[in-house]
Amino acid sequence: MTVALPTRRALVVRGGWEGHTPEAATDEFLGFLRASDFDVVVEDSLEAYADAELMGTMSLIVQSWTQGDILADEFRGLRDAIVGGAGFAGWHGGVLDAFRQTVEYSQMMGGMFAAHPHGMVPHRVEFTDAGRAHPITKGLDDFDLTSEQYWVLSDSLSTVLATTDIVPLTSDPWPEPYRAPVAWTRPWGQGRIFVTTVGHGVDDLRQPVVRDLICRGMLWAAR
């Protein structure tokens, strides 16, 4: 008799500012999650985070929610789920430009969007020594991207997997290139967090190396 393995659950929460096309962006990964034996729950409201029963069943939380405000009970539910062992993954403004008034959220993520000084700009993303050895990014090649290059405020508690250099123009006030993190992992309680700054639009997400990066990140983060 064949015994079916238990299916893990993934919660995909999407909404906020429409400029990052949260529905289309997350739709790019729903099929992958289902093919990876996740029971996928899609929610268009942050109220899902306040549902303790729902959150307690999740192996993975994927968020695409730019800007907006999160209520205290919603943030508490998200935080408690991650601290309790649920993985968290996301990209670009859907994670790093979310809930600006809730500084504890940014602390948990390990980074906050500050600017993309030059708009849509050609730039190179390079994997760090840690990234070349990490299971998420091992074997991936450095790549070029024409998109927003995120200036991120970050701390030293994350494992940085990839970086990009934001080079000042003659009119810019900063004196030398800023090496910004592009992808990182972070433990928070019993949970794992994976974040990348790339993914402004669906075209970015469809680039093979970007898709591999996010797919691997989700699987690595999941409980």
Would you write up a description of this structure?
The protein is an alpha/beta fold and 223 residues long. The protein has one domain: Class I glutamine amidotransferase (GATase) domain (Rossmann fold), CATH 3.40.50. It contains eight helices and eleven strands. A nine-stranded mixed sheet has the order 2-1-3-4-11-10-9-6-7. A two-stranded antiparallel ribbon has the order 5-8. Helix 3 links the parallel strand 3 and strand 4. The relative contact order is 0.18.
Q: What is the CATH first-level class name?
A: Alpha Beta
Measured by DSSP, the beta-strand proportion falls in 25-35%
Identify the overall geometry: globular
Taking all residues together, what is the mean pLDDT? 97
Portion in helices: 25-40%
First and last CA, distance: 27 Å
| Shape-level CATH architecture | 3-Layer(aba) Sandwich
Number of domains: 1
Beta-strand segment tally? 11
- Main sheet characteristics: 9 strands, mixed
Cα gyration radius (Å): 17 Å
Could you please say which CATH topology applies here?
Answer: Rossmann fold
- Number of distinct helices: 8
Structural class: alpha/beta
Q: Please trace the helix and strand order, writing H or E for each element.
A: EHEHEHEHHEEHEEEEEHH
Strand order of the biggest β-sheet: 2-1-3-4-11-10-9-6-7
Oligomer: single chain
CATH superfamily descriptor: Class I glutamine amidotransferase (GATase) domain
List the helices and strands and how they pair.
Blueprint: E1 8-16, H1 22-35, E2 38-43, H2 52-55, E3 60-66, H3 72-83, E4 87-91, H4 93-96, H5 103-109, E5 111-115, E6 120-127, H6 129-133, E7 143-148, E8 151-154, E9 159-166, E10 178-188, E11 191-196, H7 202-205, H8 208-221
